[in-house]
Specification:
164 residues; alpha/beta; Rossmann fold; 6-stranded mixed beta sheet; 4 helices
């Protein structure tokens, strides 16, 4: 069984027009939401073997908040450049290339690709992955290369405003 946890980066700052999209950091709400959402996963008993992230600052910072909450080290985050503005095909390729020794993997990335990706994982459809949303799917696959073809099933969707 393989479990994929897909997480959109937390709310980012638009305070400075001088900062490139890639270098935009989290804003105050994002810095609150990311550890809160990680804590909700922990409370629900979710364990994560591998953290994979876009290297863009807001995705990286979100992944760092999660990995700290899971009492793991930042150096364990695997950064994949292609997850920044990733296409549907890129998400599929990243998942297929995951290490089979990891049964549960969290992937941190961006819209619009992340919404498109979660909408092809299972029969569940959503209009938009909110910032810091967590979409989880389980597949009976033994290998990540078979994750989608084995028929992953929706596990849950959570996002900060659901807890408000």
């Amino acid at each position: 069984m393989k479990t994929l946890i897909v997480i959109r980066h937390a709310k980012s700052s638009w305070d400075s027009a001088d900062i490139s999209d890639f270098d935009r950091p989290l804003n105050d709400r994002g810095r609150r939401d990311a550890p809160a959402m990680a804590a909700r996963l922990i409370k629900a008993g979710v364990s994560i073997d591998r953290f994979v992230s876009s290297p863009a600052k807001r995705a990286r910072q979100t992944a760092e908040h999660f990995i700290h909450a899971f009492d793991r080290k930042e150096k364990e985050i695997q950064f994949i450049e292609e997850l920044y503005h990733a296409s549907l095909e890129t998400f599929r390729d990243v998942v297929a290339a995951l290490d089979d020794k990891d049964d549960t993997v969290a992937i941190f990335s961006h819209n619009p690709g992340i919404t498109a990706f979660v909408n092809v994982l299972t029969s569940v459809r959503i209009d938009n992955m909110p910032t810091c949303a967590v979409f989880a799917a389980k597949s009976p696959a033994e290998h990540w290369t078979e994750f989608q073809s084995a028929g992953p099933q929706f596990w849950f969707l959570d996002y900060p405003k659901l807890g408000s």
